[in-house]
């Protein structure tokens, strides 16, 4: 089965589709000056957009890995936004970890794996 790569650069692809599964590269907010709630909302909007481009949506997310710059400070607020966004009855498997992200202003990054319809 063929592998499709969308929005590819030398180091990564934003979307990789293979064998009925969509893998999104790490997604960030567009505006990194905002607080965790704003960055989480923008990150989730980018995930929605890329999943739609790949032909699926958030109801088909299988797993999500969330990286937080400061889990002690940002976990609760990120979860408030996440809980409002996640489709009822379609909660994916999920892990949340604290990580040093590529720039100090990045508060959250998410990787998603979803199924195609």
UniProtKB/TrEMBL annotation:
Q: Which PANTHER family has this protein been placed in? A: PTHR47328, RUTC FAMILY PROTEIN YOAB
Name of the molecule in the record: RidA family protein
Which branch of life, at top level?
Bacteria
Gene source species? Geopseudomonas aromaticivorans
Phylogenetic classification of the source organism: Bacteria, Pseudomonadati, Pseudomonadota, Gammaproteobacteria, Pseudomonadales
Q: Name one Pfam family in it.
A: Ribonuc_L-PSP
């Amino acid at each position: 089965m063929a592998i499709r790569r969308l929005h590819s650069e030398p180091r990564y692809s934003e979307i990789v589709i293979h064998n009925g599964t969509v893998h999104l590269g790490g997604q960030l907010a567009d505006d990194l000056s905002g607080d965790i709630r704003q960055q989480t909302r923008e990150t989730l909007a980018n995930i929605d957009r890329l999943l739609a481009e790949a032909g699926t949506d958030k109801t088909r997310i299988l797993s999500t890995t969330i990286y937080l710059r400061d889990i002690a400070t940002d976990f609760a607020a990120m979860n408030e936004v996440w809980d409002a966004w996640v489709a009822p009855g379609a909660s994916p498997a999920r892990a949340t970890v604290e990580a040093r992200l590529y720039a100090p202003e990045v508060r959250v990054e998410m990787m998603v794996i979803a199924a195609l319809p």
